[in-house]
Amino acid sequence: MEQTAMAFVTSVLAAAVAAGTPILYAALGEVVTERSGVLNLSLEGTMLVGAVSGFLVTVRTGSLAAGVVAAAVAGGLIAALHAFLTVTLKVNQVVSGLSLTLFGTGVSGYLGKPVIGVPTPVSFKPVVVPGLARIPVLGDVLFNQDILVYASYVLVVALWFFFYRTRPGLHMQSVGESPETADALGINVFATRYAYTIIGGMLTGIGGSYLSLAYAPSWIEYMTAGRGWIAIALVIFAVWNPLRAMLGAYLFGGIDALGFRIQVLGAIIPSFFLKMMPYIFTIAVLIFATARSRNYRIGAPAALGVPYERE
Amino acid sequence: MTEDARKVTTGTAAPTGATRAAEAEGPTGAAGAAGAVGGIGEVRAAGGTEEAGAAGSTGEARAAGGAGAGGAAPGRALAGWSIKVEKRPEISPFWMAMAPVISVAMALVCGGIFLRLTGYDPFEVYRLMFKGAFGSRYGLVETVVKATPILLATIGVSVAFRMLLWNIGAEGQIYMGAFAASWVALSHPGWPPFVLLTAMFIAGAVAGALWALLPALPRAIWGVNEIITTLMLNYVAIYWVDYLVYGPWKDPKGFNFPLTPQFSNAAWLPCLGNTRIHLGLVFGLVAAVAVSVMLSRTRWGYEIRVIGENPAAARYAGMNIPRNVVLVMLLSGAIAGIAGMGEVAGITHRLQHGISPGYGYTAIIVAWLAKLNPAGIVVTSFLFGGLLVAGYAVQIFGIPADIATMLQGSLLFFVLGGEALARYRVKLVRAGGPAGRAASVTPRLGTG
Asked: Which of A51, A284, B64, B381 is the most exposed place for a label (fewest CB within 10 A)?
């Protein structure tokens, strides 16, 4: 009995990491973008475009790497559009993000129509990390995953180091906090915002491809089911910190995984209520995070969402 | 500020501290720029090489290159293309008026290229789309039918947008309005038509308003981001309706389809002649007029506009922003809720899965395309109703109906971009040497 309970916990935690990974990529992308002062609300659409392009390319070429690269490029293109509209043309960032969300949703539905129900020739499979996987519980949870999950661990640490320990990282933050000062210091505010918005979009696109190439793995219309928006909420919850974003993503993944498990176990709760859980949880977490940081705006880049006008 | 010149560097271009300094220095011109090279060069050189290396690895386009080279070769770093964006000295009313037309044309051209690349004949597809939506009596009627909920939802969200309150939750508010109206219709089938329809109308509006109140309160009290909360509640509302129509409310004689039994005739909204155009259209037009009058003629409308345009001024003037957040969200949700009531009472005559195929999201686009102007919203809703019908029309020919969603999204960003371009001028400039650059920069700044 003890053993089966343990196995259940381990399997839920492992599923939480897998379910949290697409959200984690998108949230990391948004952290990067927002730290440079740009609010990109198009994550939901960008993830969908990433998911469909990754899937299409992998089906055509049989290569997972090509699929992930395609997803990153597609995500970067959507983000570049956002950057052009908001950084160069100074269009309202919220409106631009929303229009790109709809655009991305439409594009993904249109491109994906022919491959609905088509199986992928290959998909990401768990790779056991020798040694580390022997750690009780944690080994199975963290080190019996696929390569994209391992890449996300590296990314979290790398981003943390980049933000807090490197000069370009500090420059990026200064652009998000006070573009006037950054400009006076000789940092090109516009180029910086372009670069990080595009990098953020690329990461979001990869997050989408995780859904279609590893998590599902298949293409289903609107398969992100709000994960892009959850990622945006997560950024606020994580106070723009990559390590906390990781924690938060797995928490959301856990809710997702647990709901699914309960459904499988045949509980009396109708599945529709279980499906509502991640969204209600997101709202609760957002209220909690905002109420806590009220009046301080802890961690939010001061110039977030404000277009920079050079005098 | 008469002139606003700024540069966005492309990947290849590399403005160094020198150019920036030249701009900051302004009228002093080339001499000032030359003088500034040293100073900036020193600052940059401090972290020069390591910075350039790291920047390269992240693909960052910011040009630390000049500094990495010790600031000694600004001329080399300046060679390349750069995009210059500057505010037009005067905005031509002609171009301002033409901007939407050109933008729509551009969106269609882009959509056409996309169709071409995916193996369709764009002209044929557009012809079929136009014919499907506007080319027949049936098409026109369907266009109006689809425009009705879009119109109501758009009027709803536009009130909130006026205050820069991002109600992205019209979709959920439509579902909750439809749910509440259905609840009244199913529980009181025997009421006389006028009484029952009035009760359904009120129930729909109240349910939509309450659904909008859920995100409005945390926003008013703690400043919780309403974009995310309103959007998350859309999913919750859709699952709630799904739960009912797949579960307790399912029609036992409905062959297991996710829908409720049909309402009694008393709960059907009257239609125009024998068409499917129902009284909901009148609700929408009345709402448009009422909101227009409210915004332009009443004190409350004035407060909403001031808060939207200048929250700081509104606060100094003693306007109660949290109270307005709650009231505006209630109104916004109520109007969207009425859209949901209209769908179940006027079209489906029952509650069913997918009662709104995204009208609440379309509303966001329509609101901005119409610049939140109620009269513009009426016209744009009609066009977008047509776009939806057109999408369904080409589906028969194997073309995904998503083409309509795609065009919706691209229309908005082309129009946004087009308007910005009417106000700004984007130039691709071949930067020469430092002298050439300085010459091209300083005169413009001289007036600024």
From this structure: A284
